[in-house]
Amino acid sequence: MPELPEVETTVRGLERFLDGERIARVTLNRADLRRPFPPDLVQVLTGARVTGMGRRAKYGLIHTDREQTMVFHLGMSGRWRIEPETPDKHDHLVLETGSGHVLALNDARRFGSVDLAPTATLDAWGAFASLGPEPLGDGLTPAHLRAAFAGRIAPIKQMLLDQTIVAGLGNIYVCEALFRAGVRPDKEAGRVSLPALARLVPAIKQVLGESIAAGGSTIKDYAQPNGELGYFAASWQVYGREGDPCGCGAPVLRFVQGGRSTFWCRRCQR
After folding, report:
1. Per-residue pLDDT at 221
2. Which has fewest Cβ within 10 Å: 2, 21, 40, 146?
3. What is the reported pTM?
4. What is the C-alpha separation between 47 and 166, in angstroms, rounded?
């Protein structure tokens, strides 16, 4: 599933072609993705001007002068194709701008979604109402994590994946950040020291920032809007490297937490 860096990369790619543009035509090639498209989507977007782009957690945001924001989620295999040379059977939503740009939301597995939400009250919109702070924002601090983890016996990795604690963190980047911070993924969250949290917060920001700069991590179907593949996977230090030697020489280990693979180094993470 595309994670925060992949969504951020997507939004930045779309911004060059959409920001400030008027949407001249909206085409729906099917009635739904994971759920039906909003019934008034075509009416609201046709003729609207894009006033800005953004991201919240793993959702992309397209703001318009109709006081409505189009909220999209890429699901498992979703991606935007910019100026596609030929139509594709999985191009389920197509936007055409007044200056002639064509942007197609392509989703082979149809696990993605598209919604409309009032721009003025976006923070209170259904999926966003209970989200924690953005990991790249000022709201993620050691003090925030310490308060959220207080008294909790759940493993720290599971707590970091809780979107009400930190918005947008996914499995790959939590594994990598915990490794960089030297924190065991199965340690009780409430027992992680403040100095360890002080290492963890910049590690989270660093690994996300590096991945965004690299265009994300390509897993199966993900590609940037320009069709290029993200290459941060080449920089993974533990994720997906079971049995490979860590930089310290010990083997990278894997175990399953909450149905997801966790990769770590017993020597480096304590």
Report:
1. 41
2. 40
3. 0.91
4. 36
212 vs 53: CA distance, rounded Å: 16
Amino acid of residue 206: Q
Distances (CA, A) of 200 to 211, 239, 249: 17, 17, 22
Looking at residues 36-55, what average pLDDT do you find?
98
Catalytically annotated residues: 2-3, 58, 260
Instruction: Compute the distance between CA of residue 120 and CA of residue 85 in angstroms, rounded to an integer.
Output: 37
- DSSP helix/strand/coil, 184: coil
| Residue 166: CB atoms within 10 Å | 25
- Report the residue count for the chain: 270
CB 54 within 8 A of CB 72: no
CA dist 259 and 168 (Å) reads 18
Q: Hey, what are 239's tokens?
A: 């994720």
d(CA 1, CA 74): 8
Q: How many CB atoms lie within 10 A of CB 45?
A: 22
